[in-house]
Amino acid sequence: MRIYFVLLLAFFAAFSSKAQTLSFNPADINTIAEAEAKGYTASLLSPEVAPSENYDVKYHRLELWIDPNMRYIKGMVTTYFQTLEANFSAIHFDLNEPLRVDSVFYKGKKVTYTHSNLVLRINLPKALNKAVLDSLTIFWQGEPADNGFGSFEQTTHNGVPIIWTLSEPYGARDWWPCKQTLTDKIDSLDMWISCRKDYKAASNGLLIAEIEKGTDKTYRWKHRYPIANYLVAFAVTNYERYTEYANLKSGRMPIENYVYPEHKSFAQTGTKDLIPVIELFDSLFVDYPFRKEKYGHAQFSWGGGMEHQTMTFVINYGYELLAHELAHQWFGDHTTCGSWEDIWLNEGFATYLSGLAYEFRQPQYWQSFKSGRINSAISQAGGSVFVTDTTSVNRIFSSRLSYNKGAMVLHMLRWKLGDQAFFQGVRNYLNAPEHAYGFAKTPQFKAHLEAAGKQNLTEFFKDWYYGQGYPIYQVSVRQEGDQKVIIRLNQTTSHNSVSFFEMPVPIVLTGAGGKTYEARLENTFNGQEFTVYPGFNVTQAQFDPKLWLVARTSGLTVGTAEVEKGGFALYPNPSSGLTRLVLEERAGNIRRVVVNSVNGALMNALVQVLNQREASVDLSGMPVGMYFVRVETEKGVWVQNVVRN
């Protein structure tokens, strides 16, 4: 996804030291997301597209004439399309008005067209039947619309001019006639870019020819994988080009880098560090999706980066930025989210994979990465990963929800399913014929994880994807005898859209001499107690020390107090409403009073502590039956039965 850093200072700081590629900045992803949201602001105000769902784009050949000294484009595009309905008499493309269509040719003859309201309508001389493969050629030129957000930009670096494009989500129509939707990928693409021969042109796919003619040179790029229109891109300036290689499962693959000459040494440090990362992603998931061609980077002068297919555009070569954009080649380019509601399938994954780059390649930063993402996700009480308002740019590209919480939802799925099932489910999702090199939505992703993990994840997605907020745990650990330990988990939630988050909860118990015992507690109801046998006297307990959960604790106590009968009086008992609790002197002072069902679940009874020895318990909202009143004091835990009649 497109990324804009807010301060241009980041551009200069990025080149101040070679060590910048190996540093960790917990604010990186927040800057990435904020910049992306700013980049979308203007575009999303007018998302209407041409009526083009009645044909399928098979092929584009774009021929462009570019002079980086001028903010201008001249081009022709030959489009092969297949009709999807009968009586097909006109074809529609998206194209912004500042561009002027010179002519349209169909079967060697000019045809009529109209161009208004961002739509180019081309009239065919004869209606076509369904499933007909046909083609036409459009000639156009002009100065593209300047919306200030990078769809077609002309600027300079070190005094040298550059032109580059950045089309996501609705900017492609600013510079070429296209079908701008999230429903149809271009099956195949050729890009021929002509410019002065002292410049180089970077684009998608493989560079198959460089043809000189006088003072000009034409660069012919060939791409033979399906591609969404917003991922088609080019950049032209006085690049220096160098090639590195990654050893993937399928063999050796080139990584082509087009960099500003003044930044080549810094670029080489960053791209070298990325080679182990692309090899990692290739091994963890499926083969690099465009392995028959390349991966690459082209430097541009807009803040951040954009994951153009096979040729990411970047402003600098920071480790997390490069890893984030590389991850999009799998999650966003190969498999693209099918709606803005599902943007986490692009951004949550890209964020999580940049974390995996730390976990597997720079583990000293892994804990800090997780901590930063969790702290961001729980910094506010509400908010779902599912985008409830696709008209709000800030909501779609929320760093807290779509990026950080989205990434950690994936992390929790990994914890819940285990590494083997999680990674196999993700691989199956990427390989599935129905959305490989196409589009996918969350229910499809969920189905693949369920099949791989042999678990029903409906409750998980209800709580963590559609639901808002996070759980707050109160953990009590008490030792009963030399071996037996009782762990009790109570939970409240930060938002009322979820009454209880079902999750396996990790607790680590520690004893004398550094002995440890790791417990995985399958927490399915509130107030649940677990009995474990660590084999030593417990002196300390840790809640989720490896940071698997988007959660926090409001208290964790470790003690050896026995649960005792008596210690207080209840009257009346039985009761249909209020019952009064009076603590005996031997029991100590009230710290906490709760009501549990017979199976240990925490009940929603209204408890009011009146003083150190007295409390009232309201049973009126509870079903008829027997319950346990539990009083915790500084001297222990005391329990008595109470009957609601």
Task: Please write out the topology.
Elements: H1 9-13, H2 28-44, E1 55-65, E2 73-83, E3 88-94, E4 100-106, E5 109-110, E6 113-116, E7 119-128, E8 133-142, E9 152-157, E10 160-165, E11 188-196, E12 200-203, E13 206-213, E14 216-223, E15 234-237, E16 240-248, E17 251-259, H3 264-284, E18 295-299, E19 305-306, E20 312-314, H4 319-327, E21 336-337, H5 344-361, H6 366-377, H7 393-396, H8 399-417, H9 419-431, E22 439-440, H10 442-453, H11 458-466, E23 471-480, E24 484-493, E25 503-511, E26 516-523, E27 528-532, E28 538-543, E29 552-559, E30 563-565, E31 568-571, E32 578-583, E33 590-596, E34 606-609, E35 614-618, E36 625-633, E37 636-644
Parallel strand pairs: 1-11, 17-18, 18-20, 21-22, 23-29, 30-37
Antiparallel strand pairs: 1-2, 2-8, 3-7, 4-5, 4-8, 6-7, 9-10, 10-15, 11-14, 12-15, 13-14, 16-17, 19-20, 23-24, 24-27, 25-26, 25-28, 31-32, 32-35, 33-36, 34-35, 36-37
Average the pLDDT over all residues and give the rounded result: 90
Q: Which architecture of the largest domain would the CATH scheme give at its second level?
A: Orthogonal Bundle
Low-confidence stretches: 2-21, 41-45
Number of strands: 37
The 3D shape can be described as elongated
CATH topology of the largest domain: Neutral Protease, domain 2
- Helix/strand-derived class? alpha+beta
| Span between termini | 61 Å
Q: What spatial order of strands do you see in the largest sheet?
A: 5-4-8-2-1-11-14-13
Report helical residue fraction: 10-25%
Number of domains as seen in the coordinates: 4
Broad CATH class of the largest domain: Mainly Alpha
CATH superfamily of the largest domain: Neutral Protease Domain 2
Number of helices: 11
